[in-house]
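Problem: given the chain below (98 residues), write out its structure.
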Amino acid sequence: MPADADQSIPDVVEHPIGPELDLHTFRPNEIGSLLPEYFAECRKLGILRVRIIHGKGKGTLRTGVHQLLTKLPEVQQFIWPADETSGSWGATWVILQA
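Solution.
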């Protein structure tokens, strides 16, 4: 096997499924598949209220998250900004369909 063969295979990083997803380690172009998969797993586990942490920054990631949330049928509603103790402008609460 060539020495550079391992470099072409991306590392798989598993994240535990819980009521919070921190997107700081993800690029905006990754959320299109990440969020629907995460929401599907949350629903399987009975987690219907989740907090998406997108950060305050320039708002690029937040805008992408909110645009996607409006298109996903499993999203009942989303609340932004989150309350002061939950991340304020840097987080969004998402309520999922049962």
